[in-house]
Amino acid sequence: MLLGHMQDRPLLISDIISFAERHHGDAQIISRRVEGDLHQTTYQDCASRARQVANAVEAEGLAVSDRVGTIAWNGYRHLELYFGVAGAGRVLHTINPRLHADQVAWIINHAIDQIICFDLSFLELIGQIRGQCPAVKAWIALCGPESLSDTDRASGLISYEEWIGAQSSAYHWPAFDEHGAASLCYTSGTTGSPKAVLYSHRSTVLHAYAISLPDAMGFSARDSILPLVPMFHVNAWGIPYAASLTGAKLVFPGPRLDGQSVYELIAAEGVTFIAGVPTVLQSLVSHADNNKLELADLRRVIVGGAACPPALLRNLRERRQLDAIHAWGMTEMSPLGTLSMLKRKHEKLSYDEQWALREKQGRAVFGVDMKIVDDEGVEMPWDGITPGHLLVRGHWVITQYFDPTGDRKDAGGADAQGWFATGDVATIDADGFMQITDRSKDVIKSGGEWISSIEIENLAMSHPDVALAACIGVPHPKWDERPVLVVVLKPGATADRDDLLAFYEGKIAKWQIPEDVIMVDSIPIGATGKILKARLRDMMKDYHLEQ
Fold it and tell me: Among 105, 95, 161, 166, which residue's Cα sits nearest to residue 136?
């Protein structure tokens, strides 16, 4: 084969921050800090301090590919670690602080983290786990020296500003294989122990390119971007890398994700783009609605991380006139897989026809391929009707889970053809629009037919009295399973079982209507904002349908 005469340079994360420093050095990075104030810096300062991070990591004696863990909110120091650790050839391991302390300690030990950097919000958590993590050489508090007490210092904690302040900002980013590991993220572990997903420099840079495309998140140097999704959750969906790559202004919310705090940042910093899970976005919308506030310069919203209730999507698009985009992905996919962006030919469709497409999870971006198969692995048609188990492969999709300890031989991964089973059940239409109908383990099989628990939940969430809803399958002697709806009502709401069941009439087939409705005070939510169906089933284990 005749080879092209093009330069062959590795795709490295350090190139992103170097480009941002050189071409967008004065672009702002705004952070609401744990200390309570708003901090302002630039990509030029970020790059300089990231080089100090790289020198600090090397001064600790970490070998190439050793792990540095972070337990931190979205902020400028966390961003410096994103670039400094990975740029130096080590692996940044972002840890979800919403997990139980024992699970956090297990993850640190499984990853064999050498350094842990943490926000002071998690000082109590660090106190609980330090004695359980013998491999950790240094515990770095993301603060200045004035924020540590004498007791903290005596216990061996080091302030981040002192840690990097002792280092030079002169550092030459090394060149190495682009397939080298860059960052590490663990799945939430809702079933069994969490699994480790190890991203490469190549996969991360390609993912950043892809999500910046116009039919994806569409970033540019004219944007002011507020990632509400945490930096400890799948690298904030890759947004910090993509924003830096394009030179966009970055606005970090820190620990305050309530509607009022998010609104204040949007208004003060001219935010044009936000991305987050439905629960956080609903809090923002409720605050704006209740106080009759407009969302200033905001133009685009990405909703992902969990199925978006259509009522929320309609509020953002119709009431707020925002370009609200439904997206789907998973930790094992870096995470972006699809976005619900219409094609040119769809502009001729009626509003209702367009809306039916927008409610779907959308079509794949370049770099991701997908298909649906039946229980025997036979590929199903793309007709928008036939459901199947969703499989994916691509440039930033996992091959296998990371196992540094060698004790997870059965952890799983992609098959021999590179297809990874997502655990979702979906349909795909002729234009490639994918719609998740359920998780494989959550789909309700009633009388030989599949019932989508997500569809039932979405309809319930459109009822004006419903704050949160979840649907599970309950054993039935004749139909195998029947759907039961579990509901949290809004304060002061008066809807009862019969009202909610009547609400389904004419909207779905009669055999799909829930068999019963149960009112509860709360529904269990996981560390990433998703409903914990397994825990809900456990809560309902003593419930039996009246036959």
Answer: 105
Question: Which residue of the set 162, 264, 450, 515 is catalytic?
Answer: 450
pLDDT category of residue 404 using cuts at 50, 70 and 90: confident
Could you give the 3-state DSSP secondary structure of residue 352?
Answer: helix
Measured CA to CA, the distance from residue 100 to residue 90 in angstroms comes to 26
Q: Which positions ≥6 away from 185 have C-beta within 8 Å?
A: 93, 94, 196, 197, 199, 232, 233, 234, 235, 331
Q: Using an 8 Å Cβ cutoff, are 252 and 31 in contact?
A: yes
pLDDT in tens, 117-135: 999 999 999 999 999 999 9
3-state secondary structure of 159: strand
d(Cα 495, Cα 489) in Å, to the nearest integer?
8
Catalytic residue (one of 445, 449, 490, 507): 445
From the number of C-beta atoms within 10 Å of its C-beta (0-12, 13-18, 19+), residue 314 rates as middle
Name the residue among 363, 536, 337 with its Cα closest to residue 453. Answer: 536
**The pTM is what?**
0.85
C-alpha–C-alpha distance, residues 423 and 429, integer Å:
19
Contacts of 148 (CB under 8 A, 6+ apart): 141, 157, 159
Tens of pLDDT along 191-222?
Answer: 467 899 999 999 999 999 999 999 999 999 99
445 is catalytic: yes
Tokens at residue 170, please?
């002169």
Q: Which residue has the tokens 């600090």?
A: 56
Residue matched to tokens 């059940």: 425
Coil, helix or strand for 345? helix
pLDDT tens digits for range 39-85: 999 999 999 999 999 999 999 999 999 999 999 999 999 999 999 99
- For strands 67-71 and 113-118, give the pairing: parallel
pLDDT higher than 80, residue 409 = no
Residue type at 511 in one-letter notation: W
**Residues 187, 204, 338, 437: which is the catalytic one?**
187
Beta strand pairing call for 300-303 and 323-329: parallel
Peptide bond into 335 cis (omega under 30): yes
Tokens of 203: 């996969």
* Catalytic-labelled residue, pool 161, 178, 269, 332: 332
Q: Is 347 one of the annotated active-site residues of the chain?
A: no
Q: Tell me what pLDDT residue 453 has.
A: 85
